[in-house]
Specification:
With about 475 residues, the chain is an all-alpha fold. Helix content is about 65%, strand content about 0%. It has 23 helices and 2 strands.
Protein backbone atom coordinates (compact mmCIF):
# COMPACT_ATOMS: atom_id res chain seq x y z
CA UNK A 1 0.00 0.00 0.00
CA UNK A 2 1.40 3.39 -1.04
CA UNK A 3 0.23 5.50 1.87
CA UNK A 4 2.03 8.64 0.71
CA UNK A 5 0.36 8.46 -2.71
CA UNK A 6 -3.03 7.96 -1.08
CA UNK A 7 -2.42 10.90 1.27
CA UNK A 8 -1.39 13.19 -1.58
CA UNK A 9 -4.49 12.42 -3.66
CA UNK A 10 -6.78 12.81 -0.65
CA UNK A 11 -5.29 16.23 -0.02
CA UNK A 12 -5.90 17.27 -3.63
CA UNK A 13 -9.47 15.96 -3.64
CA UNK A 14 -10.39 17.65 -0.35
CA UNK A 15 -8.94 20.93 -1.60
CA UNK A 16 -11.04 20.50 -4.73
CA UNK A 17 -14.14 19.84 -2.63
CA UNK A 18 -13.58 23.07 -0.66
CA UNK A 19 -14.24 25.02 -3.89
CA UNK A 20 -17.83 23.76 -3.88
CA UNK A 21 -18.49 26.10 -0.94
CA UNK A 22 -17.96 29.15 -3.15
CA UNK A 23 -21.54 29.22 -4.59
CA UNK A 24 -23.19 29.11 -1.11
CA UNK A 25 -20.74 31.79 0.03
CA UNK A 26 -21.72 33.98 -2.93
CA UNK A 27 -25.43 33.48 -2.16
CA UNK A 28 -24.86 34.28 1.53
CA UNK A 29 -22.88 37.41 0.65
CA UNK A 30 -25.44 38.56 -1.92
CA UNK A 31 -28.36 38.06 0.47
CA UNK A 32 -26.41 39.32 3.50
CA UNK A 33 -27.22 36.08 5.31
CA UNK A 34 -25.81 35.21 8.72
CA UNK A 35 -24.58 31.83 7.42
CA UNK A 36 -21.76 33.58 5.56
CA UNK A 37 -19.37 33.38 8.49
CA UNK A 38 -19.97 29.66 8.89
CA UNK A 39 -19.29 28.95 5.23
CA UNK A 40 -16.13 31.09 5.25
CA UNK A 41 -14.86 29.20 8.29
CA UNK A 42 -15.76 25.89 6.66
CA UNK A 43 -13.91 26.61 3.40
CA UNK A 44 -10.85 27.67 5.40
CA UNK A 45 -10.89 24.51 7.53
CA UNK A 46 -11.44 22.13 4.61
CA UNK A 47 -8.74 23.80 2.53
CA UNK A 48 -6.38 23.68 5.49
CA UNK A 49 -7.02 19.96 6.01
CA UNK A 50 -6.42 19.30 2.32
CA UNK A 51 -3.23 21.36 2.33
CA UNK A 52 -1.87 19.64 5.44
CA UNK A 53 -2.44 16.25 3.80
CA UNK A 54 -0.93 17.27 0.46
CA UNK A 55 2.07 19.42 1.40
CA UNK A 56 4.30 16.83 3.15
CA UNK A 57 3.98 14.38 0.22
CA UNK A 58 3.53 16.83 -2.64
CA UNK A 59 6.54 15.53 -4.61
CA UNK A 60 5.57 11.84 -4.49
CA UNK A 61 4.11 10.85 -7.84
CA UNK A 62 4.22 7.07 -7.94
CA UNK A 63 1.71 5.15 -10.03
CA UNK A 64 -1.57 4.56 -8.27
CA UNK A 65 -2.38 0.86 -7.92
CA UNK A 66 -5.85 -0.69 -7.83
CA UNK A 67 -5.68 -1.27 -4.07
CA UNK A 68 -4.67 2.36 -3.57
CA UNK A 69 -7.70 3.40 -5.60
CA UNK A 70 -10.10 1.54 -3.30
CA UNK A 71 -8.54 3.17 -0.23
CA UNK A 72 -8.66 6.64 -1.79
CA UNK A 73 -12.32 6.27 -2.75
CA UNK A 74 -13.48 5.02 0.65
CA UNK A 75 -11.40 7.50 2.67
CA UNK A 76 -12.46 10.35 0.43
CA UNK A 77 -16.18 9.60 0.77
CA UNK A 78 -15.79 9.24 4.53
CA UNK A 79 -13.81 12.48 4.61
CA UNK A 80 -16.46 14.22 2.52
CA UNK A 81 -19.17 13.08 4.89
CA UNK A 82 -17.38 14.69 7.84
CA UNK A 83 -15.97 17.81 6.18
CA UNK A 84 -19.24 18.37 4.31
CA UNK A 85 -20.95 18.49 7.70
CA UNK A 86 -18.91 21.50 8.87
CA UNK A 87 -21.26 24.17 7.43
CA UNK A 88 -24.24 22.50 9.14
CA UNK A 89 -22.42 22.50 12.49
CA UNK A 90 -21.28 26.14 12.19
CA UNK A 91 -24.62 27.46 10.94
CA UNK A 92 -27.02 29.16 13.35
CA UNK A 93 -30.04 27.99 11.34
CA UNK A 94 -30.05 25.07 11.49
CA UNK A 95 -27.51 24.47 14.23
CA UNK A 96 -27.02 20.72 14.09
CA UNK A 97 -25.17 18.32 16.35
CA UNK A 98 -22.19 16.52 14.83
CA UNK A 99 -24.27 13.36 14.42
CA UNK A 100 -27.11 15.13 12.65
CA UNK A 101 -24.72 17.20 10.51
CA UNK A 102 -22.78 14.13 9.33
CA UNK A 103 -26.06 12.32 8.63
CA UNK A 104 -27.35 15.21 6.49
CA UNK A 105 -24.01 15.56 4.71
CA UNK A 106 -23.64 11.84 4.02
CA UNK A 107 -27.26 11.63 2.86
CA UNK A 108 -26.68 14.44 0.40
CA UNK A 109 -23.37 13.19 -0.98
CA UNK A 110 -24.61 9.63 -1.42
CA UNK A 111 -27.82 10.99 -3.05
CA UNK A 112 -29.90 9.17 -0.45
CA UNK A 113 -32.16 12.09 0.36
CA UNK A 114 -32.92 11.05 3.95
CA UNK A 115 -33.07 14.15 6.10
CA UNK A 116 -33.17 14.99 9.79
CA UNK A 117 -34.32 18.56 9.07
CA UNK A 118 -37.78 19.96 9.67
CA UNK A 119 -38.99 23.44 8.76
CA UNK A 120 -37.01 23.32 5.53
CA UNK A 121 -39.04 26.18 4.01
CA UNK A 122 -37.64 28.54 6.63
CA UNK A 123 -33.95 27.62 6.22
CA UNK A 124 -31.52 30.21 4.77
CA UNK A 125 -31.04 30.00 1.01
CA UNK A 126 -27.28 29.31 1.25
CA UNK A 127 -27.98 26.22 3.37
CA UNK A 128 -30.76 25.10 1.03
CA UNK A 129 -28.52 25.48 -2.01
CA UNK A 130 -25.63 23.69 -0.28
CA UNK A 131 -27.81 20.64 0.44
CA UNK A 132 -28.88 20.45 -3.19
CA UNK A 133 -25.30 20.97 -4.40
CA UNK A 134 -24.07 18.07 -2.27
CA UNK A 135 -26.51 15.79 -4.05
CA UNK A 136 -25.57 17.06 -7.48
CA UNK A 137 -21.88 16.46 -6.83
CA UNK A 138 -22.54 13.04 -5.37
CA UNK A 139 -24.77 12.01 -8.27
CA UNK A 140 -22.07 11.49 -10.85
CA UNK A 141 -19.36 11.22 -8.22
CA UNK A 142 -16.92 13.95 -7.34
CA UNK A 143 -14.05 11.52 -7.92
CA UNK A 144 -15.14 11.07 -11.53
CA UNK A 145 -15.13 14.86 -11.73
CA UNK A 146 -11.63 14.90 -10.29
CA UNK A 147 -10.45 12.40 -12.89
CA UNK A 148 -11.98 14.59 -15.57
CA UNK A 149 -10.36 17.88 -14.60
CA UNK A 150 -7.22 16.83 -12.77
CA UNK A 151 -4.76 15.27 -15.22
CA UNK A 152 -2.35 15.51 -12.28
CA UNK A 153 -3.79 12.18 -11.15
CA UNK A 154 -2.36 10.67 -14.31
CA UNK A 155 -2.31 6.88 -14.57
CA UNK A 156 -4.24 6.45 -11.33
CA UNK A 157 -7.40 7.80 -12.91
CA UNK A 158 -8.63 4.39 -14.05
CA UNK A 159 -8.19 2.94 -10.58
CA UNK A 160 -10.31 5.69 -9.04
CA UNK A 161 -12.92 5.43 -11.78
CA UNK A 162 -13.31 1.65 -11.42
CA UNK A 163 -13.48 1.83 -7.63
CA UNK A 164 -16.10 4.58 -7.52
CA UNK A 165 -18.48 4.10 -10.45
CA UNK A 166 -21.60 1.94 -9.93
CA UNK A 167 -22.50 -1.21 -11.79
CA UNK A 168 -21.23 -4.75 -12.37
CA UNK A 169 -19.34 -4.08 -15.62
CA UNK A 170 -16.81 -1.35 -14.87
CA UNK A 171 -14.05 -2.24 -17.33
CA UNK A 172 -15.63 -0.58 -20.36
CA UNK A 173 -14.59 2.93 -21.32
CA UNK A 174 -16.51 5.24 -23.62
CA UNK A 175 -13.30 6.79 -24.96
CA UNK A 176 -9.69 5.59 -25.15
CA UNK A 177 -8.57 7.89 -22.34
CA UNK A 178 -10.18 7.71 -18.91
CA UNK A 179 -10.08 11.49 -18.46
CA UNK A 180 -12.04 11.88 -21.69
CA UNK A 181 -14.55 9.28 -20.47
CA UNK A 182 -15.08 11.19 -17.23
CA UNK A 183 -15.44 14.46 -19.12
CA UNK A 184 -18.00 12.91 -21.48
CA UNK A 185 -20.08 11.70 -18.53
CA UNK A 186 -19.97 15.11 -16.88
CA UNK A 187 -20.91 16.94 -20.08
CA UNK A 188 -24.01 14.75 -20.37
CA UNK A 189 -24.76 15.17 -16.67
CA UNK A 190 -24.41 18.95 -16.92
CA UNK A 191 -26.53 19.07 -20.07
CA UNK A 192 -29.33 17.13 -18.38
CA UNK A 193 -29.15 19.43 -15.36
CA UNK A 194 -29.38 22.62 -17.43
CA UNK A 195 -32.27 21.24 -19.49
CA UNK A 196 -34.12 20.12 -16.36
CA UNK A 197 -33.56 23.51 -14.71
CA UNK A 198 -34.92 25.46 -17.67
CA UNK A 199 -37.92 23.12 -17.89
CA UNK A 200 -38.76 23.60 -14.21
CA UNK A 201 -38.39 27.36 -14.60
CA UNK A 202 -40.69 27.40 -17.63
CA UNK A 203 -43.24 25.34 -15.67
CA UNK A 204 -43.51 28.01 -12.97
CA UNK A 205 -40.78 27.42 -10.40
CA UNK A 206 -38.66 30.33 -9.24
CA UNK A 207 -35.17 30.25 -10.72
CA UNK A 208 -33.69 29.31 -7.33
CA UNK A 209 -36.10 26.40 -6.91
CA UNK A 210 -35.56 25.34 -10.53
CA UNK A 211 -31.77 25.14 -10.07
CA UNK A 212 -32.10 23.42 -6.70
CA UNK A 213 -34.56 20.79 -7.86
CA UNK A 214 -32.72 20.13 -11.12
CA UNK A 215 -29.69 19.25 -8.98
CA UNK A 216 -31.63 16.69 -6.95
CA UNK A 217 -33.67 15.37 -9.88
CA UNK A 218 -30.80 14.57 -12.24
CA UNK A 219 -28.73 13.17 -9.36
CA UNK A 220 -31.75 11.07 -8.29
CA UNK A 221 -31.24 12.49 -4.83
CA UNK A 222 -34.62 13.73 -3.63
CA UNK A 223 -33.67 16.70 -1.45
CA UNK A 224 -36.04 19.64 -1.80
CA UNK A 225 -36.15 23.27 -0.69
CA UNK A 226 -39.60 22.65 0.79
CA UNK A 227 -40.99 20.34 3.46
CA UNK A 228 -43.72 19.20 1.06
CA UNK A 229 -41.09 18.30 -1.58
CA UNK A 230 -42.41 18.51 -5.18
CA UNK A 231 -45.95 18.50 -3.76
CA UNK A 232 -45.33 22.09 -2.61
CA UNK A 233 -45.77 23.37 -6.17
CA UNK A 234 -49.09 21.57 -6.81
CA UNK A 235 -48.32 21.84 -10.53
CA UNK A 236 -48.99 18.99 -12.94
CA UNK A 237 -46.34 20.30 -15.34
CA UNK A 238 -43.69 20.28 -12.62
CA UNK A 239 -44.71 16.72 -11.73
CA UNK A 240 -44.49 15.65 -15.39
CA UNK A 241 -41.06 17.22 -15.86
CA UNK A 242 -39.81 15.49 -12.72
CA UNK A 243 -41.14 12.13 -13.95
CA UNK A 244 -39.41 12.51 -17.32
CA UNK A 245 -36.04 13.48 -15.87
CA UNK A 246 -36.15 10.88 -13.10
CA UNK A 247 -36.68 8.19 -15.74
CA UNK A 248 -33.98 9.65 -17.99
CA UNK A 249 -31.46 9.97 -15.14
CA UNK A 250 -32.09 6.36 -14.18
CA UNK A 251 -30.83 5.17 -17.58
CA UNK A 252 -27.23 4.07 -18.05
CA UNK A 253 -25.26 7.19 -19.01
CA UNK A 254 -23.30 5.08 -21.49
CA UNK A 255 -26.47 4.89 -23.60
CA UNK A 256 -26.89 8.66 -23.42
CA UNK A 257 -23.30 9.04 -24.61
CA UNK A 258 -23.64 6.70 -27.59
CA UNK A 259 -27.02 8.17 -28.54
CA UNK A 260 -25.51 11.67 -28.46
CA UNK A 261 -22.34 10.69 -30.34
CA UNK A 262 -24.21 8.75 -33.04
CA UNK A 263 -27.12 11.21 -33.21
CA UNK A 264 -29.46 8.23 -32.99
CA UNK A 265 -31.89 6.63 -30.56
CA UNK A 266 -30.85 3.12 -31.65
CA UNK A 267 -28.57 2.54 -28.59
CA UNK A 268 -31.64 2.85 -26.37
CA UNK A 269 -33.87 0.39 -28.21
CA UNK A 270 -31.25 -2.33 -28.44
CA UNK A 271 -30.38 -2.34 -24.73
CA UNK A 272 -31.78 -5.26 -22.72
CA UNK A 273 -31.38 -3.50 -19.37
CA UNK A 274 -33.26 -0.42 -20.55
CA UNK A 275 -36.16 -2.53 -21.84
CA UNK A 276 -36.35 -4.34 -18.50
CA UNK A 277 -36.09 -1.01 -16.64
CA UNK A 278 -38.96 0.59 -18.55
CA UNK A 279 -41.06 -2.58 -18.27
CA UNK A 280 -40.63 -2.72 -14.50
CA UNK A 281 -41.46 0.98 -14.15
CA UNK A 282 -44.55 0.53 -16.32
CA UNK A 283 -45.78 -2.47 -14.31
CA UNK A 284 -45.28 -0.70 -10.95
CA UNK A 285 -47.10 2.41 -12.23
CA UNK A 286 -49.96 0.31 -13.63
CA UNK A 287 -50.46 -1.71 -10.44
CA UNK A 288 -50.30 1.43 -8.30
CA UNK A 289 -52.82 3.38 -10.36
CA UNK A 290 -55.26 0.47 -10.66
CA UNK A 291 -55.15 -0.25 -6.93
CA UNK A 292 -55.56 3.44 -6.07
CA UNK A 293 -58.58 3.69 -8.37
CA UNK A 294 -60.21 0.77 -6.54
CA UNK A 295 -59.34 1.52 -2.90
CA UNK A 296 -58.44 5.19 -2.46
CA UNK A 297 -60.69 8.15 -1.68
CA UNK A 298 -59.33 10.41 -4.43
CA UNK A 299 -62.07 12.60 -5.92
CA UNK A 300 -59.87 13.94 -8.74
CA UNK A 301 -58.93 11.08 -11.07
CA UNK A 302 -56.24 13.12 -12.84
CA UNK A 303 -54.60 13.88 -9.51
CA UNK A 304 -54.81 10.22 -8.55
CA UNK A 305 -53.10 9.00 -11.71
CA UNK A 306 -50.40 11.69 -11.60
CA UNK A 307 -49.66 10.94 -7.94
CA UNK A 308 -49.63 7.21 -8.63
CA UNK A 309 -47.22 7.50 -11.55
CA UNK A 310 -45.06 10.11 -9.83
CA UNK A 311 -44.61 8.15 -6.59
CA UNK A 312 -44.03 4.91 -8.46
CA UNK A 313 -41.23 6.45 -10.56
CA UNK A 314 -39.79 8.46 -7.68
CA UNK A 315 -39.49 5.52 -5.29
CA UNK A 316 -38.60 2.87 -7.89
CA UNK A 317 -35.73 4.99 -9.27
CA UNK A 318 -34.64 5.72 -5.65
CA UNK A 319 -35.14 9.47 -6.11
CA UNK A 320 -37.40 9.97 -3.10
CA UNK A 321 -39.43 13.03 -4.14
CA UNK A 322 -43.01 13.08 -2.88
CA UNK A 323 -46.21 14.77 -4.00
CA UNK A 324 -48.38 13.10 -1.39
CA UNK A 325 -48.02 11.03 1.78
CA UNK A 326 -47.73 7.75 -0.08
CA UNK A 327 -46.93 5.93 3.18
CA UNK A 328 -50.61 6.40 4.09
CA UNK A 329 -51.84 4.79 0.89
CA UNK A 330 -54.07 1.72 1.34
CA UNK A 331 -52.87 -1.82 1.93
CA UNK A 332 -49.72 -3.08 0.25
CA UNK A 333 -48.86 -0.08 -1.98
CA UNK A 334 -46.24 1.55 0.30
CA UNK A 335 -44.45 -1.78 0.67
CA UNK A 336 -44.71 -2.46 -3.08
CA UNK A 337 -42.96 0.83 -3.83
CA UNK A 338 -40.33 0.18 -1.18
CA UNK A 339 -39.57 -3.23 -2.69
CA UNK A 340 -39.39 -1.62 -6.14
CA UNK A 341 -36.52 0.52 -4.82
CA UNK A 342 -34.51 -2.66 -4.25
CA UNK A 343 -34.41 -3.12 -8.04
CA UNK A 344 -33.41 0.52 -8.48
CA UNK A 345 -32.25 2.14 -11.69
CA UNK A 346 -29.84 1.03 -14.40
CA UNK A 347 -26.15 0.40 -13.84
CA UNK A 348 -24.07 3.41 -14.80
CA UNK A 349 -26.84 5.82 -13.79
CA UNK A 350 -27.14 8.12 -10.81
CA UNK A 351 -29.75 5.84 -9.20
CA UNK A 352 -29.35 3.39 -6.35
CA UNK A 353 -30.63 -0.08 -5.56
CA UNK A 354 -29.30 -3.43 -6.70
CA UNK A 355 -29.44 -2.21 -10.34
CA UNK A 356 -31.66 -3.58 -13.09
CA UNK A 357 -28.90 -5.36 -14.99
CA UNK A 358 -28.04 -7.44 -11.91
CA UNK A 359 -31.69 -8.33 -11.38
CA UNK A 360 -32.01 -9.23 -15.06
CA UNK A 361 -28.94 -11.48 -14.95
CA UNK A 362 -30.11 -13.13 -11.72
CA UNK A 363 -33.46 -13.85 -13.40
CA UNK A 364 -31.76 -15.28 -16.47
CA UNK A 365 -29.51 -17.40 -14.27
CA UNK A 366 -32.55 -18.73 -12.43
CA UNK A 367 -34.21 -19.67 -15.74
CA UNK A 368 -30.99 -21.37 -16.84
CA UNK A 369 -30.89 -23.49 -13.68
CA UNK A 370 -34.47 -24.62 -14.29
CA UNK A 371 -33.55 -25.60 -17.86
CA UNK A 372 -30.51 -27.49 -16.58
CA UNK A 373 -32.77 -29.59 -14.37
CA UNK A 374 -34.73 -30.63 -17.44
CA UNK A 375 -31.70 -30.99 -19.77
CA UNK A 376 -28.66 -31.74 -17.55
CA UNK A 377 -26.24 -32.14 -20.46
CA UNK A 378 -27.32 -29.11 -22.47
CA UNK A 379 -25.23 -25.95 -22.69
CA UNK A 380 -27.15 -22.74 -22.00
CA UNK A 381 -25.52 -19.34 -22.48
CA UNK A 382 -26.78 -16.18 -20.76
CA UNK A 383 -26.82 -13.17 -23.06
CA UNK A 384 -27.29 -9.44 -22.60
CA UNK A 385 -27.82 -7.37 -25.76
CA UNK A 386 -27.34 -10.60 -27.75
CA UNK A 387 -23.81 -10.98 -26.38
CA UNK A 388 -22.68 -13.80 -24.06
CA UNK A 389 -22.06 -12.81 -20.46
CA UNK A 390 -18.89 -14.19 -18.92
CA UNK A 391 -19.34 -16.65 -16.07
CA UNK A 392 -17.16 -14.53 -13.79
CA UNK A 393 -19.68 -11.68 -14.16
CA UNK A 394 -22.53 -14.02 -13.20
CA UNK A 395 -20.54 -15.27 -10.22
CA UNK A 396 -19.73 -11.72 -9.17
CA UNK A 397 -23.41 -10.78 -9.27
CA UNK A 398 -24.35 -13.80 -7.14
CA UNK A 399 -21.63 -12.72 -4.71
CA UNK A 400 -22.98 -9.18 -4.67
CA UNK A 401 -26.51 -10.38 -4.03
CA UNK A 402 -25.35 -12.62 -1.17
CA UNK A 403 -23.32 -9.81 0.38
CA UNK A 404 -26.20 -7.36 -0.06
CA UNK A 405 -28.63 -9.73 1.68
CA UNK A 406 -26.23 -10.41 4.56
CA UNK A 407 -25.47 -6.71 5.06
CA UNK A 408 -29.17 -5.82 4.94
CA UNK A 409 -30.09 -8.40 7.59
CA UNK A 410 -27.19 -7.33 9.79
CA UNK A 411 -28.14 -3.65 9.65
CA UNK A 412 -31.80 -4.37 10.35
CA UNK A 413 -30.99 -6.47 13.42
CA UNK A 414 -28.62 -3.79 14.71
CA UNK A 415 -31.29 -1.09 14.30
CA UNK A 416 -33.90 -3.23 16.02
CA UNK A 417 -31.44 -3.84 18.86
CA UNK A 418 -31.05 -0.06 19.20
CA UNK A 419 -34.79 0.28 19.86
CA UNK A 420 -36.41 0.80 16.45
CA UNK A 421 -39.56 -1.14 15.63
CA UNK A 422 -39.37 -3.75 12.83
CA UNK A 423 -41.16 -1.65 10.17
CA UNK A 424 -39.03 1.43 10.87
CA UNK A 425 -35.80 -0.60 10.97
CA UNK A 426 -36.59 -2.50 7.76
CA UNK A 427 -37.62 0.58 5.79
CA UNK A 428 -34.76 2.70 7.14
CA UNK A 429 -32.16 0.15 6.03
CA UNK A 430 -33.90 -0.28 2.66
CA UNK A 431 -34.09 3.50 2.16
CA UNK A 432 -30.44 4.10 3.08
CA UNK A 433 -28.79 1.03 1.56
CA UNK A 434 -30.71 1.65 -1.69
CA UNK A 435 -30.00 5.42 -1.46
CA UNK A 436 -33.73 6.10 -1.56
CA UNK A 437 -34.41 8.45 1.38
CA UNK A 438 -37.98 8.30 2.71
CA UNK A 439 -38.99 5.15 4.55
CA UNK A 440 -41.99 3.96 6.50
CA UNK A 441 -42.95 4.10 10.15
CA UNK A 442 -40.97 6.64 12.19
CA UNK A 443 -38.79 7.59 9.20
CA UNK A 444 -41.55 8.26 6.69
CA UNK A 445 -41.23 12.06 6.97
CA UNK A 446 -37.75 12.55 8.45
CA UNK A 447 -35.09 10.78 10.52
CA UNK A 448 -34.90 13.29 13.33
CA UNK A 449 -36.76 11.11 15.84
CA UNK A 450 -34.49 8.06 15.77
CA UNK A 451 -31.55 7.67 18.16
CA UNK A 452 -28.01 8.82 17.35
CA UNK A 453 -26.59 5.29 17.22
CA UNK A 454 -29.12 4.37 14.52
CA UNK A 455 -28.15 7.47 12.54
CA UNK A 456 -24.47 6.43 12.52
CA UNK A 457 -25.42 2.93 11.42
CA UNK A 458 -27.52 4.37 8.61
CA UNK A 459 -24.66 6.67 7.55
CA UNK A 460 -22.58 3.54 7.08
CA UNK A 461 -25.45 1.93 5.14
CA UNK A 462 -25.68 4.96 2.82
CA UNK A 463 -21.96 4.78 2.12
CA UNK A 464 -22.14 1.05 1.41
CA UNK A 465 -25.06 1.60 -0.94
CA UNK A 466 -23.29 4.39 -2.81
CA UNK A 467 -20.07 2.40 -3.19
CA UNK A 468 -21.98 -0.82 -3.92
CA UNK A 469 -20.89 -2.79 -0.86
CA UNK A 470 -17.77 -4.55 -2.17
CA UNK A 471 -15.74 -1.34 -2.53
CA UNK A 472 -16.13 -0.87 1.21
CA UNK A 473 -16.17 -4.52 2.32
CA UNK A 474 -12.90 -5.25 0.56
CA UNK A 475 -11.10 -3.01 3.05
CA UNK A 476 -12.18 -5.34 5.87
CA UNK A 477 -10.55 -8.34 4.21
CA UNK A 478 -7.14 -9.38 5.61
CA UNK A 479 -6.13 -10.47 2.10
CA UNK A 480 -6.48 -6.87 0.89
CA UNK A 481 -3.77 -5.67 3.27
CA UNK A 482 -1.26 -8.42 2.57
CA UNK A 483 1.76 -7.48 0.53
Amino acid sequence: MQYAVVQRILGILLSLFSLTLLPPIAIAWWSNDSSLQGFLTAIFLITLIGFCLWFPVRNIRNELKLRDGFVVVVLFWVGLGFTGAIPFVLSDTPHLSITDAVFESMSGLTTTGATILTGIDDLPKPILFYRQELQWLGGMGIIVLAVAILPILGIGGMQLYRAETPGPMKESKLTPRITETAKALWYIYLGLTVTCCLSYWAAGMTFFDAISHSFSTVSIGGFSTHDASIGYFNNIWVDTIAIVFMIFSGINFTLHFFAWRNQSTQPYWHDSELRAYLSIMGIVCLVTCIYLSITSDYTDLTKMFVDGIFQSISIATTTGFTTTQYQNWPSFLPMLLLFASFLGACAGSTGGGIKIVRVLLLFKQGIREVKRLIHPNALFIIKINDKPVQERVINAIWGFFAAYTAVFIFFQLVLMASGLDPITAFSAVAACLNNLGPGLGDVSAHYNNINDFAKWVLCFAMLMGRLEIFTLLVLFSPVFWRK
